[in-house]
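Quick one - first record:
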Amino acid sequence: MTKTQYGSYRDAFKAHFKLKDGTTYSEIEMTKKVISYNDLMALTKNIKDPADPLSMRLTYGLDTSNHFVLLLELMEETATGIVPVPGSLVRCTDFSSRGTPVPTSPAQQKTYSDAYINTVWYVDGANDRHLTNGGNTPDPTSIWFDWETEVMRELEANAPVEGSWLVLDCMSAQYDLSGFGYPDAYRHGMGLNIAKVEGGVLTDHLDDIDHSLPPADKDPANYKAMDLGNLHPPRWP
Protein backbone atom coordinates (compact mmCIF):
# COMPACT_ATOMS: atom_id res chain seq x y z
CA MET A 1 0.00 0.00 0.00
CA THR A 2 1.15 3.55 -0.64
CA LYS A 3 1.56 6.28 1.96
CA THR A 4 -1.88 7.67 1.08
CA GLN A 5 -3.54 4.25 1.41
CA TYR A 6 -1.65 3.67 4.66
CA GLY A 7 -3.14 6.86 6.07
CA SER A 8 -6.68 5.95 5.03
CA TYR A 9 -6.44 2.50 6.64
CA ARG A 10 -5.06 4.10 9.81
CA ASP A 11 -7.97 6.55 9.84
CA ALA A 12 -10.42 3.67 9.41
CA PHE A 13 -8.95 1.91 12.44
CA LYS A 14 -9.14 5.03 14.60
CA ALA A 15 -12.75 5.59 13.52
CA HIS A 16 -13.99 2.07 14.23
CA PHE A 17 -11.96 0.70 17.17
CA LYS A 18 -12.08 2.66 20.41
CA LEU A 19 -12.00 2.57 24.18
CA LYS A 20 -15.14 3.61 26.05
CA ASP A 21 -15.53 5.30 29.43
CA GLY A 22 -19.20 5.72 30.25
CA THR A 23 -20.58 7.31 27.08
CA THR A 24 -17.26 8.76 25.93
CA TYR A 25 -15.06 7.12 23.31
CA SER A 26 -11.31 7.62 23.10
CA GLU A 27 -8.53 6.45 20.81
CA ILE A 28 -6.44 3.37 21.52
CA GLU A 29 -2.97 4.70 22.24
CA MET A 30 0.56 3.51 21.54
CA THR A 31 -0.39 1.40 18.50
CA LYS A 32 2.81 1.86 16.47
CA LYS A 33 5.31 -0.88 17.32
CA VAL A 34 8.72 -1.95 16.03
CA ILE A 35 11.19 -4.80 16.09
CA SER A 36 14.70 -4.59 14.64
CA TYR A 37 15.81 -6.89 11.85
CA ASN A 38 18.49 -8.42 14.09
CA ASP A 39 16.03 -9.11 16.91
CA LEU A 40 13.53 -10.57 14.44
CA MET A 41 16.08 -12.95 12.94
CA ALA A 42 17.20 -14.04 16.42
CA LEU A 43 13.69 -15.44 16.94
CA THR A 44 14.29 -17.98 14.15
CA LYS A 45 17.08 -19.83 15.97
CA ASN A 46 14.80 -22.60 17.26
CA ILE A 47 13.09 -23.45 13.96
CA LYS A 48 12.91 -27.24 13.68
CA ASP A 49 13.43 -27.45 9.92
CA PRO A 50 14.49 -24.47 7.76
CA ALA A 51 12.53 -26.04 4.88
CA ASP A 52 9.23 -25.75 6.77
CA PRO A 53 6.94 -22.85 5.75
CA LEU A 54 7.00 -20.09 8.33
CA SER A 55 4.51 -17.40 9.33
CA MET A 56 4.53 -14.47 11.72
CA ARG A 57 1.48 -14.16 13.97
CA LEU A 58 0.67 -10.84 15.64
CA THR A 59 -1.72 -10.91 18.60
CA TYR A 60 -3.49 -7.79 19.85
CA GLY A 61 -3.68 -6.84 23.51
CA LEU A 62 -4.07 -4.07 26.07
CA ASP A 63 -2.00 -3.50 29.19
CA THR A 64 -3.34 -2.32 32.54
CA SER A 65 -3.14 1.31 31.34
CA ASN A 66 -5.19 0.42 28.23
CA HIS A 67 -2.20 1.05 25.98
CA PHE A 68 -2.01 -1.17 22.93
CA VAL A 69 0.19 -4.27 23.20
CA LEU A 70 1.42 -6.26 20.21
CA LEU A 71 2.70 -9.81 20.69
CA LEU A 72 4.78 -11.33 17.88
CA GLU A 73 5.33 -15.06 17.47
CA LEU A 74 6.78 -17.18 14.68
CA MET A 75 4.69 -20.18 13.61
CA GLU A 76 6.18 -23.19 11.79
CA GLU A 77 4.17 -25.45 9.52
CA THR A 78 5.43 -28.96 10.34
CA ALA A 79 4.27 -32.34 9.10
CA THR A 80 1.93 -32.56 12.11
CA GLY A 81 0.48 -29.05 11.95
CA ILE A 82 1.24 -25.41 12.66
CA VAL A 83 3.22 -24.98 15.88
CA PRO A 84 4.89 -22.02 17.63
CA VAL A 85 8.65 -21.68 17.24
CA PRO A 86 10.00 -22.10 20.80
CA GLY A 87 11.18 -18.88 22.41
CA SER A 88 9.78 -16.65 19.65
CA LEU A 89 6.85 -15.09 21.58
CA VAL A 90 7.78 -11.49 22.35
CA ARG A 91 6.17 -8.14 23.08
CA CYS A 92 7.14 -5.55 20.47
CA THR A 93 8.33 -2.15 21.68
CA ASP A 94 6.97 1.31 20.91
CA PHE A 95 8.20 3.11 17.80
CA SER A 96 9.48 5.98 19.93
CA SER A 97 11.64 3.80 22.19
CA ARG A 98 13.33 1.47 19.65
CA GLY A 99 13.83 -1.03 22.44
CA THR A 100 14.54 -4.74 22.56
CA PRO A 101 11.48 -7.02 22.33
CA VAL A 102 10.41 -8.48 25.67
CA PRO A 103 10.03 -12.29 25.96
CA THR A 104 6.45 -13.13 26.93
CA SER A 105 4.66 -16.23 28.17
CA PRO A 106 1.50 -17.73 26.63
CA ALA A 107 -0.29 -16.94 29.92
CA GLN A 108 0.66 -13.26 29.68
CA GLN A 109 -0.32 -13.25 26.02
CA LYS A 110 -3.80 -14.48 27.01
CA THR A 111 -4.10 -11.78 29.69
CA TYR A 112 -3.30 -9.06 27.15
CA SER A 113 -5.58 -10.60 24.51
CA ASP A 114 -8.50 -11.03 26.92
CA ALA A 115 -8.16 -7.38 27.98
CA TYR A 116 -8.29 -6.35 24.32
CA ILE A 117 -11.41 -8.35 23.46
CA ASN A 118 -13.18 -7.36 26.69
CA THR A 119 -12.36 -3.65 26.56
CA VAL A 120 -12.27 -2.45 22.94
CA TRP A 121 -15.47 -1.33 21.22
CA TYR A 122 -16.39 -1.58 17.55
CA VAL A 123 -17.96 1.71 16.51
CA ASP A 124 -20.01 2.21 13.34
CA GLY A 125 -22.43 4.92 14.45
CA ALA A 126 -25.46 2.63 14.52
CA ASN A 127 -24.73 -0.60 16.35
CA ASP A 128 -21.74 0.10 18.56
CA ARG A 129 -20.69 -2.99 20.49
CA HIS A 130 -18.02 -4.66 22.51
CA LEU A 131 -15.72 -6.89 20.51
CA THR A 132 -16.55 -10.57 20.78
CA ASN A 133 -14.67 -13.83 20.32
CA GLY A 134 -17.87 -15.85 19.86
CA GLY A 135 -20.66 -16.27 17.29
CA ASN A 136 -20.41 -16.76 13.54
CA THR A 137 -18.20 -13.73 12.93
CA PRO A 138 -15.89 -13.34 15.95
CA ASP A 139 -13.61 -10.35 15.97
CA PRO A 140 -10.03 -11.37 15.17
CA THR A 141 -7.54 -11.15 18.00
CA SER A 142 -4.53 -11.78 15.78
CA ILE A 143 -3.29 -11.40 12.22
CA TRP A 144 -0.86 -13.49 10.16
CA PHE A 145 1.89 -12.62 7.67
CA ASP A 146 3.65 -15.17 5.49
CA TRP A 147 7.37 -15.10 6.28
CA GLU A 148 8.83 -15.39 2.78
CA THR A 149 6.29 -13.60 0.58
CA GLU A 150 5.41 -10.78 2.97
CA VAL A 151 7.87 -10.25 5.84
CA MET A 152 11.13 -11.06 4.06
CA ARG A 153 10.00 -9.57 0.78
CA GLU A 154 9.30 -6.27 2.50
CA LEU A 155 12.69 -6.30 4.19
CA GLU A 156 14.66 -7.31 1.09
CA ALA A 157 12.88 -4.81 -1.18
CA ASN A 158 14.09 -2.08 1.15
CA ALA A 159 17.66 -3.36 1.33
CA PRO A 160 20.08 -3.25 3.00
CA VAL A 161 18.26 -5.22 5.67
CA GLU A 162 20.98 -4.66 8.28
CA GLY A 163 19.90 -1.73 10.42
CA SER A 164 16.29 -2.03 9.29
CA TRP A 165 13.33 -1.99 11.65
CA LEU A 166 10.00 -3.66 11.00
CA VAL A 167 7.17 -1.18 11.72
CA LEU A 168 3.76 -2.57 12.71
CA ASP A 169 0.72 -0.36 13.15
CA CYS A 170 -3.03 -0.86 13.53
CA MET A 171 -5.12 -0.57 10.38
CA SER A 172 -8.62 -1.48 9.30
CA ALA A 173 -10.46 -2.31 6.10
CA GLN A 174 -14.03 -3.28 5.33
CA TYR A 175 -14.70 -6.99 4.83
CA ASP A 176 -17.62 -8.54 2.95
CA LEU A 177 -19.60 -10.64 5.46
CA SER A 178 -22.68 -11.10 3.29
CA GLY A 179 -21.98 -14.82 3.03
CA PHE A 180 -22.57 -15.07 6.79
CA GLY A 181 -25.81 -13.09 6.65
CA TYR A 182 -24.18 -10.06 8.30
CA PRO A 183 -23.59 -6.54 7.00
CA ASP A 184 -20.09 -5.59 5.91
CA ALA A 185 -17.85 -4.69 8.83
CA TYR A 186 -14.40 -3.27 9.43
CA ARG A 187 -11.81 -5.67 10.79
CA HIS A 188 -8.65 -5.01 12.78
CA GLY A 189 -5.56 -5.58 10.64
CA MET A 190 -1.92 -4.50 10.76
CA GLY A 191 0.21 -2.57 8.31
CA LEU A 192 3.81 -3.70 7.89
CA ASN A 193 6.53 -1.40 6.60
CA ILE A 194 10.23 -0.62 7.04
CA ALA A 195 12.03 2.13 8.94
CA LYS A 196 15.71 2.97 9.17
CA VAL A 197 17.76 5.11 11.55
CA GLU A 198 18.69 8.31 9.76
CA GLY A 199 20.52 11.07 11.62
CA GLY A 200 19.88 9.25 14.89
CA VAL A 201 16.13 9.23 14.26
CA LEU A 202 14.02 6.21 13.27
CA THR A 203 12.36 7.22 10.00
CA ASP A 204 9.63 5.40 8.07
CA HIS A 205 10.58 4.35 4.54
CA LEU A 206 7.10 4.90 3.17
CA ASP A 207 6.17 7.03 0.20
CA ASP A 208 3.60 7.28 -2.57
CA ILE A 209 4.39 5.86 -5.99
CA ASP A 210 7.21 7.71 -7.71
CA HIS A 211 6.76 7.14 -11.45
CA SER A 212 10.14 8.73 -12.17
CA LEU A 213 11.98 5.75 -10.66
CA PRO A 214 13.67 3.33 -13.05
CA PRO A 215 11.88 -0.02 -13.52
CA ALA A 216 14.30 -1.86 -11.21
CA ASP A 217 13.23 0.38 -8.32
CA LYS A 218 9.50 -0.15 -8.79
CA ASP A 219 9.20 -3.31 -6.72
CA PRO A 220 5.72 -3.08 -5.13
CA ALA A 221 7.26 -3.52 -1.68
CA ASN A 222 9.93 -0.84 -2.16
CA TYR A 223 9.08 2.20 -0.01
CA LYS A 224 5.58 0.78 0.46
CA ALA A 225 3.73 -0.98 3.26
CA MET A 226 2.43 -4.54 3.09
CA ASP A 227 -1.26 -5.32 3.16
CA LEU A 228 -3.27 -5.71 6.35
CA GLY A 229 -2.35 -9.36 6.85
CA ASN A 230 -4.39 -12.56 6.86
CA LEU A 231 -7.15 -13.42 9.31
CA HIS A 232 -5.96 -17.04 9.35
CA PRO A 233 -2.68 -18.85 8.66
CA PRO A 234 -1.60 -18.14 5.03
CA ARG A 235 -1.75 -21.83 4.05
CA TRP A 236 -4.87 -22.60 6.05
CA PRO A 237 -6.95 -25.25 4.17
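second record:
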Amino acid sequence: MTNQEYFGLFSVSMNKKKIIRYENENSRDDYHVYAYRYTPDGFIFFCRIETFFRTAPNENSWKTGSLSSFHELSFVQGATSDTFYLTNETFRPAEFIQYPLISGPEESAWITADPLP
Protein backbone atom coordinates (compact mmCIF):
# COMPACT_ATOMS: atom_id res chain seq x y z
CA MET A 1 0.00 0.00 0.00
CA THR A 2 1.19 3.53 -0.71
CA ASN A 3 1.35 6.36 1.82
CA GLN A 4 -1.59 8.02 0.01
CA GLU A 5 -3.65 4.80 0.32
CA TYR A 6 -2.86 4.70 4.04
CA PHE A 7 -3.86 8.37 4.32
CA GLY A 8 -7.22 7.68 2.66
CA LEU A 9 -7.98 4.77 4.97
CA PHE A 10 -6.63 6.38 8.17
CA SER A 11 -8.35 9.75 7.61
CA VAL A 12 -11.75 8.07 7.08
CA SER A 13 -11.13 5.97 10.20
CA MET A 14 -10.24 9.03 12.27
CA ASN A 15 -13.14 11.18 11.05
CA LYS A 16 -15.78 8.46 11.44
CA LYS A 17 -14.22 6.89 14.61
CA LYS A 18 -14.13 3.48 12.87
CA ILE A 19 -11.58 0.78 13.71
CA ILE A 20 -9.09 -0.38 11.08
CA ARG A 21 -8.27 -4.08 11.39
CA TYR A 22 -5.21 -6.10 10.36
CA GLU A 23 -5.74 -9.83 10.79
CA ASN A 24 -3.76 -13.00 10.18
CA GLU A 25 -3.97 -16.63 11.35
CA ASN A 26 -2.71 -16.03 14.88
CA SER A 27 -3.42 -12.43 15.79
CA ARG A 28 -5.52 -9.37 15.08
CA ASP A 29 -4.59 -5.69 15.45
CA ASP A 30 -7.26 -3.02 15.84
CA TYR A 31 -6.11 0.52 14.97
CA HIS A 32 -7.82 3.52 16.61
CA VAL A 33 -6.58 6.52 14.63
CA TYR A 34 -6.24 9.63 16.81
CA ALA A 35 -4.16 11.99 14.66
CA TYR A 36 -2.05 12.44 11.55
CA ARG A 37 0.48 14.96 10.29
CA TYR A 38 2.40 15.56 7.10
CA THR A 39 6.22 15.35 7.00
CA PRO A 40 8.64 15.68 4.06
CA ASP A 41 8.61 11.85 3.88
CA GLY A 42 4.80 11.54 3.81
CA PHE A 43 2.00 11.15 6.31
CA ILE A 44 2.57 9.94 9.88
CA PHE A 45 -0.30 8.51 11.91
CA PHE A 46 -0.76 8.39 15.69
CA CYS A 47 -2.79 5.35 16.74
CA ARG A 48 -3.77 3.24 19.68
CA ILE A 49 -3.26 -0.37 18.63
CA GLU A 50 -4.98 -3.25 20.40
CA THR A 51 -3.58 -6.69 19.66
CA PHE A 52 -5.63 -9.82 20.23
CA PHE A 53 -4.46 -13.43 20.04
CA ARG A 54 -6.40 -16.57 19.16
CA THR A 55 -7.07 -19.16 21.83
CA ALA A 56 -8.28 -21.71 19.25
CA PRO A 57 -8.37 -22.00 15.46
CA ASN A 58 -12.04 -20.97 15.14
CA GLU A 59 -13.51 -17.58 14.14
CA ASN A 60 -14.59 -16.38 17.61
CA SER A 61 -11.60 -17.39 19.70
CA TRP A 62 -10.01 -13.95 20.25
CA LYS A 63 -8.60 -13.33 23.71
CA THR A 64 -9.63 -9.81 24.73
CA GLY A 65 -7.28 -7.27 26.25
CA SER A 66 -4.08 -8.96 25.12
CA LEU A 67 -2.02 -5.80 24.38
CA SER A 68 -2.74 -2.11 23.96
CA SER A 69 -0.19 0.57 23.04
CA PHE A 70 0.23 3.90 21.24
CA HIS A 71 2.33 4.19 18.09
CA GLU A 72 3.41 6.68 15.45
CA LEU A 73 3.61 4.97 12.08
CA SER A 74 3.63 5.60 8.36
CA PHE A 75 2.89 2.04 7.19
CA VAL A 76 2.00 -1.41 8.51
CA GLN A 77 4.49 -4.09 7.53
CA GLY A 78 2.83 -6.93 5.65
CA ALA A 79 -0.51 -5.15 5.26
CA THR A 80 -2.34 -5.32 1.94
CA SER A 81 -5.72 -3.99 0.89
CA ASP A 82 -7.09 -7.51 1.57
CA THR A 83 -5.72 -7.83 5.13
CA PHE A 84 -5.93 -4.19 6.31
CA TYR A 85 -9.46 -2.81 6.22
CA LEU A 86 -11.99 -0.45 7.79
CA THR A 87 -14.59 -2.08 10.05
CA ASN A 88 -18.04 -0.88 11.12
CA GLU A 89 -16.91 -0.97 14.76
CA THR A 90 -16.44 2.41 16.44
CA PHE A 91 -13.91 3.60 19.02
CA ARG A 92 -13.91 6.43 21.52
CA PRO A 93 -10.80 8.67 21.37
CA ALA A 94 -8.78 8.85 24.58
CA GLU A 95 -9.36 11.97 26.68
CA PHE A 96 -5.74 13.15 26.38
CA ILE A 97 -6.11 13.65 22.63
CA GLN A 98 -7.47 17.13 23.41
CA TYR A 99 -3.95 18.20 24.43
CA PRO A 100 -1.56 19.28 21.66
CA LEU A 101 0.79 16.71 20.16
CA ILE A 102 4.28 17.98 19.34
CA SER A 103 5.64 18.21 15.77
CA GLY A 104 9.16 18.73 14.49
CA PRO A 105 10.31 22.03 12.92
CA GLU A 106 9.73 20.97 9.28
CA GLU A 107 6.54 19.04 9.96
CA SER A 108 2.93 20.16 9.90
CA ALA A 109 0.87 20.32 13.07
CA TRP A 110 -1.09 17.25 14.09
CA ILE A 111 -4.65 17.00 12.81
CA THR A 112 -6.54 15.26 15.60
CA ALA A 113 -9.81 13.35 15.97
CA ASP A 114 -12.64 15.31 17.46
CA PRO A 115 -13.60 13.84 20.85
CA LEU A 116 -17.03 12.25 21.01
CA PRO A 117 -19.57 14.12 23.14
